[in-house]
Amino acid sequence: MIQKTWFDRLLTIALAMVMVGAVLAAQQMNLKPGLPSASSGSLAAEAAAQAATGYISISAAAFEPHSKSVEYDNRGNSLSTLSGGGYFYAPVQLPHGATVTNMIFVFFDDEETEHAQVKMYCFNLTSGSLMGEITSLNEGASSENTTVFTDPVIDNSEYSYYIELFLSSEDVYLYQVFIEFTYPTNFMPLVMRDH
Question: pTM here?
Fold first, then answer.
């Protein structure tokens, strides 16, 4: 017989409580694990009715330079080059099946002739494609957004996702990129729900 420590027992109890909670929540919502409820109308209509909105924030701290030759200043809450322009990249982690609905780019542009650009890409081992992009249009502290995306549904079984950032000079700073998305609550794990 294997001797269990107090931690092993505590972990077993906690996992059992999570499983009981998941089963009770699924029963209360008339859901079967991994499948939508079949109690009303079409599955597409029900999925749309049970959609929730989620947000991710990609801070300046997440961005890495394209090349080691790019001189930059990353303070965690802001990113700029020290001289000239440069490209930077950050990973994007969204739930499988989510639909990207909005991307917001928060920046500071100290020079009217300079700009910054954010692009979101999906890629796999053989190909990649641009999903959406934003170019800074205003001088000073500002934000720009886009709601136009090609292939906005996230497919983590096939693709990975990332943000490409271009800063044209040391006069342009990135603060954050926000991504808004919707997801069907009847397909998401309970730990991903916001209620």
Answer: 0.70
C-alpha dihedral sign at 25, 31, 34, 37: negative
**Superfamily of chain region 45-184:** Galactose-binding domain-like (2.60.120.260)
Tokens at 182, concatenated:
């919707």
Q: What does the alpha-carbon distance between residue 108 and residue 78 come to, in Å, rounded to a whole number? A: 9
Alpha-carbon gap, residue 172 to 85, rounded angstroms: 9
Query: Cβ(65)–Cβ(87) under 8 Å?
Result: yes
pLDDT of res. 100: 97
pLDDT in tens, 8-20: 444 444 444 444 4
Give the domain ranges of the chain.
6-30, 45-184
Mean per-residue pLDDT over the chain, rounded: 79
The Cα 179–Cα 192 span in angstroms is: 16
Q: Are 81 and 110 in contact (CB under 8 A)?
A: no
Residue positions counted in the chain: 195
Q: How far apart are the first and last CA of the chain?
A: 41
Q: Are 42 and 36 in contact (CB under 8 A)?
A: no
Q: Quick one: which of 123, 110, 98 has its CA closest to 47?
A: 98
Helix runs in the chain, H state only: 6-28, 43-49
